[in-house]
Amino acid sequence: MLWLLQSGVMRVSEFISFIYSNLDTAAVATYQHLYLSFGSVLLGMLVAIPLGIWLTDKEKLAEKVLAVTGTIQTVPGLAFLGLFLPLLGLGVVPSMTVLFLYSLLPILTNTYTGIKGVSPALVEAGMGMGMSPRQLLFMVKLPLAFPVIIAGIRIASVYIVSWATLAAFVGGGGLGDPILTGIMTADINFILMGAIPAALLALTAGWILGIVERLAIPRGLRG
Amino acid sequence: MVKFKNVVKAYGNLVAVKNLDLEIPEGELVVLIGPSGCGKTTTLKMVNRLIEPTSGSIFIRDRNVMDLNPVALRREIGYVIQQIGLFPNMTIEQNIDVVPRLLGWPAEKRKRRVYELLEMVGMEPDIYAPRYPNELSGGQQQRIGVLRALAAEPPLILMDEPFGALDPIARESLQDELKSLHSRLNKTTIFVTHDMDEALKLADRVVVMNQGEVVQVATPETLLRKPANDFVASFIGKNRLNGESLQSVVEIMLPDPVTVYPQMGLAEGLALMKRKKVDTVLVVDGERKLVGSVAVETLDRERKRAKTIGEIMDQDPPLATIRSQASAKEAFDLIVGEKLKYLPVVDEKGVLVGLVTRNSMVDALASAVWGDEGE
Fold first, then answer.
1. Which residue of A179, A222, B18, B243 is surrounded by the most CB atoms within 10 Å?
2. Residues on chain B touching A123 (C-beta within 8 angstroms)
3. ipTM of the shown complex
4. Euclidean distance between CA atoms B263 and B350, whole angstroms
């Protein structure tokens, strides 16, 4: 028992000195990781939010689009990377493409359902008062759907951050790199050097966006 | 002001509005009423093109609405919807000045208008303007809904069952307010409801609709006195309380209440009350003017001490009475509102002419609802 504890303390101190001597590698990997995941989520937002808004008055099409993005979600990440290998080669581009595709579903679904969820009475009131479709969107629909859309971005961010470790398999860099090295050399220190910051990043992203989500609730709707 | 010419709205085979012809003069408050599915809301929404007619035309001040841009058209028409429909993400001020903002009024003019409107309905602007809708009661919210429709001073206002979701007290007070606003501002108003009391209370003219057709267009008075057919009559209700069959308090009072004179001895009074099976009698003087009342308990208690009814009758506080010219409804309101057991009816000289009791009130109500045939 004591031995186990001693060896545990030994391992932690050994890990700390390992990180300390590989700080450069860790910093570069973290930076790449941030770049990969938030770049993909940002791209996802740029596509999914306008698409979601556009789909709100095309219900039939919306169903199909949501089914397609839902299907994308079920393809295993590693398989996807392999699929894109012949098309996009190695590096950052295929990694971000795959992560981008994964970020679409939650952002798209939440944008669509958030706007659809705005009370029809409010939409009718806005229209009846002479708002143009655009004014209705920006004055009524988006402000009311905003918290739901942010929730979609939060969900996407949290799991894109953890899935971005897969980029290492196609030379995309990020915190997957040390993990992969660790697996190949059977060195737990490397694995932890990738896994711990990745987990912390995911938690932090979730926490920060959770706060944004609460702040996004219009004041008149807060309990 | 508004003119419907042979307007039809069909949804496939279902005709919601059939060949509607209707003219609404400037400044009138017209109420469209009918059972659900009669086409009243469809008719209303065709005016601001939330629904487009299948055929026929609608003119506002001689302009065909189909020739106008719907967005611009709607900004010229006040609109109050059934559910309250205030935007929860906006303050009261922002809600009221939506249309002025859409029309590009300068900020200062908008603020002045919001304050003016809030003051008009007695809501302190400094308190209410910065609040959010969820901080207001339902009645206050719909009051804001009405102000919002008035904000840009539209010449025409459409109201789609605006008070339907409110509790009876709030509804009553908003109706009163709308009536007073209308008499002050004289805006042409089209008001949809399925509540006949509301229609009779508010309308200059009532348009009764059934199955997409106009059945009768008439003032409330004419509607009550001369319903066009059985449908209208049954929709009004056979013997409406504020209708002609029960207009006067005289019709619901007991014409010959038990009375005593101040000089009458106590034993005699007690015997009279036992014989007539009443627990209270009214005291009148020689000219039959009402001077007080006395309850059986008082008589019994004071039997040893006093000799005449005059010595023990209640004069203070003065009895609640009602004048014989008053309406039956006023008597009901007094009895129910003040929790009175009875209400003497007097003429202008104070002479007792009758008595409304809770029993006579219930009898009158019953015969109004079920007719007199049961007696």
1. A179
2. none
3. 0.78
4. 19
Residue pLDDT, tens place only, A111-153: 999 999 999 999 999 999 999 999 999 999 999 999 999 999 9
Pick the CATH number of B249-370 from 3.10.580.10, 3.40.50.2300, 3.90.470.10, 3.40.50.300: 3.10.580.10
Structural domain boundaries in chain B: 2-246, 249-370
Q: Considering CB atoms only, which of A124, A130, A219 is closest to B71?
A: A130
CA A217 to chain centre: 21
- B105 CB within 8 Å of a chain A CB: no
With beta carbons less than 8 A apart as the criterion, state whether B64 and B73 touch: no
CATH superfamily assigned to domain A37-218: MetI-like (1.10.3720.10)
Mutate to test the interface with B, among A115, A129, A137, A148 (most CBs of B within 10 A): A129
Residues found in chain A: 223
The model carries a pTM of 0.69
Nearest residue, CB atoms, A129 vs list B72, B83, B99: B99
